[in-house]
């Protein structure tokens, strides 16, 4: 998928090393993975699950590429049988430029093409940028519990 400034390509095992590095950046990890280190084994599991989701559902994790450099990840992941969640992370040097919204809008378009009708957005309470992104995407706040805020986005 392409946007005005980005290329989004399915993430795969060939991206393992760069994604382990990305997800372990302290600023990126702060609101992901409960701020715990992401092992290569965990990253491999996430990528294999994503590849299976692409094969089964037509969506998964896309690597976000700008000027031929991987700068993050954005994707859709099933949460149980009922819900699908949108996930995103960008390298800190690319924060504040609207790129997360641009990537998320492209991924949500893929969700619509896969006939999804609703997507969950879950953010940590302190992640103000993600709260703003959920609002910008048109998500409706459901509530907060256990240090997280939940939003629903109708597609």
Can you describe this structure?
The structure is a single chain. By secondary structure, the protein is an alpha+beta fold. The protein has a single domain (7-154), classed as Gcn5-related N-acetyltransferase (GNAT) (Aminopeptidase, 3-Layer(aba) Sandwich). The protein has helices at 16-23, 26-29, 40-57, 99-113, 128-137; strands at 7-10, 61-66, 69-79, 83-90, 118-124, 140-145, 148-154. Helix 1 (16-23) crosses helix 3. The model has no long low-confidence stretch (mean pLDDT 96).
Would you spell out the secondary-structure blueprint of this structure?
Blueprint: E1 7-10, H1 16-23, H2 26-29, H3 40-57, E2 61-66, E3 69-79, E4 83-90, H4 99-113, E5 118-124, H5 128-137, E6 140-145, E7 148-154
Antiparallel strand pairs: 1-2, 2-3, 3-4, 5-7, 6-7
CATH class: Alpha Beta
Note the beta-strand portion. Answer: 25-35%
Q: Spell out the CATH superfamily.
A: Gcn5-related N-acetyltransferase (GNAT)
Overall 3D form: globular
Annotated CATH topology = Aminopeptidase
Give the fraction of residues assigned to helices: 25-40%
Order of helices and strands: EHHHEEEHEHEE
- The count of domains is 1
Secondary structure class reads alpha+beta
Count of helical stretches: 5
Question: In CATH terms, what is the architecture?
Answer: 3-Layer(aba) Sandwich
Radius of gyration: 14 Å
The stretches of 5 or more residues where confidence is low (pLDDT under 50) are none
Q: What's the end-to-end separation, in Å?
A: 18 Å
Mean of residue pLDDT values: 96
The major pleated sheet works out as: 4 strands, antiparallel
Q: Please give the number of β-strands.
A: 7
